[in-house]
Amino acid sequence: MPDLNKYIDLIKSGDIVAFPTETVYGLGADAWNPAAIKKIFELKGRPADNPLIVHISDKNQLNDFVAQIPDSAQKLMDAFWPGPLTLVFKKKPAVLDLITGGLNTVALRIPDHSLAIELISNTGPLVAPSANKSGHPSPTKAAHVLSDFGADFPVIDGGATEIGLESTVLDLTAKVPAILRPGKIGVQEIGNVLGIEIEAGSSQTEKTEIPKSPGQKYSHYKPKAEVYYGDISNFEKNTLYLVQRERIESSKNVINYSGDLELLSQELYDRFRQTDIKGFKAVSIESIEDYCYQYPSLYDALLNRIEKATGK
Ligand code: TXA
Ligand code: MG
User: How far away, in angstroms, is 194 Cα from ligand 1 center?
Assistant: First the structure.
């Protein structure tokens, strides 16, 4: 286990530290320090109207950010926190506008990672976007963070992240809770806990004029290589293939996931980065539709990320 003292001191002195969560690495700054939060936007090249998620280590910290905690939130927190579910609440006036991009809501979650929890328990709540430059794939390894921000950047190395895709973002301020960004916890799991049908709103929000979740309007997760999705019939040398069944062509540029969507989620962003590092001109992902019943939530989440990467 890495010694966190130096990282805790950095955060307390208004600096930024990258840390692992169960989803992807985050770029952490003190949620009450405007200068530190500004540094995050500058470092990432992130538009100011794209709000940040506040990461807490304890439910009690919610009260400093959230005006009123609905019953539905209590149920969801009991069921899924710590874990990859971000909840959007009506915010308290004291929450910095820098965090919310001027919205009257604030997004929070408790990450399910011992290093993240130890860090936040010592620093207090941290805002933490994914620790990548805007437009790059989210980092799932410490090396990805260093590749975006330089070899000297302070990053707490927790190895490869377990889930590999960002948390589900659920808006609790609408009449019916709506998923703004799909993740490992999906409509079924959330609907079961709440006893109602919830809305899987990710693609709709992208097209509305004032997006509920501003992050959805920006192109994300795109490697330099072209990304293709669908059936694969012929294989070329300078393309990386992520396939679902064994092929005679199997070689270094053909990786078979056998429909294991958990593994594909874990590795997708690393594969995107590898395509660029290794100089492939494209990455071609074979359809995962056959596995949508086995992994309904990951299927939605993967498809959302893949479609963004294909530029659809
Ligand atoms: O898994 C994750 O959520 C990772 C790890 C580090 O926790 N964090 C992450 O942060 O993905 P970021 O900043 O890359 O994405 C945050 C998303 C954006 O799409 C943003 O628009 C949305 O959450 N969001 C943040 N605050 C919001 C709010 N008040 N209302 C609606 N959407 C919000
Ligand atoms: Mg991000």
Answer: 22
The residue count of the chain comes to 312
Q: Using one digit for the tens of pLDDT, what is the confidence trace for 148-205?
A: 999 999 999 999 999 999 999 999 998 899 999 999 999 999 999 999 988 886 433 3
How much is the pTM?
A: 0.95
CA-nearest residue for atom 7, ligand 1, is 26
- 3-class SS at 83? coil
C-alpha dihedral over 81, 299, 166, 263, to 10 degrees?
100
Distance 195 CA to ligand 2 centre (A): 30
| Nearest CA-CA partner of 38 in 13, 54, 14 | 14
Ligand 1 binding pocket (C-beta < 6 A) is: 21, 23-24, 26, 50-53, 86, 88, 100, 103, 105-107, 111, 128-130, 166-167, 169, 180-181, 212-216
Distance CA 209, CA 193 (A): 31
Contact yes or no for 26/19 (Cβ under 8 A): yes
Ligand 1 atom 31 nearest Cα: 213
